[in-house]
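Slide 14.
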Amino acid sequence: MSTAQSAPGPRCVETPPAEWRGNSPRYLVMRTLVVAVVWVLIVAVGTVVALLAAHASPRNWVLVAFPAITLIWGACLTVTEPRRVRAMGYLLREDDVVFRRGLWFRRQVAVPFGRLQLAELTKGPLDRMAGVSALRLVTASAGTDAKMPGLGDAEAASLRDRLIELAESRRAGL
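Slide 15: predicted structure.
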């Protein structure tokens, strides 16, 4: 048996892996506080209604259990909100941008630069207080839901400008 050695092939140049970028830490704090406050209000209203119903008819024990169930559900949502926010991110690749989100049901949307029609920044009142913006990309497809909430204002404006620049250089003819 002869042992033939093959000539070494061309060397592969490893490109560094692209880095997923997330949203601002201020967005994480804002979302967690909003979820906690909303659930505290829901539990408070539910408790008042349950107490009034229990006072009117002591047999309505199901209504008394409502605040406890709501409190547990709200606590679970408040605890998982930081993970849900950290699951959001975007990745700039050579020909497109990829957005990801979802804690339980993960979703990734890739938008080719050549199909990008509009890059829009939006801010609600809480976003303005936290200093964050949401970037939404619009394409010709009505089903494209490419949105990245919670970016810092400077990062969102920079990303929007970069995406517009890349879209103009790679515009695809329709």
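Speaker note: The chain has four helices and six strands.
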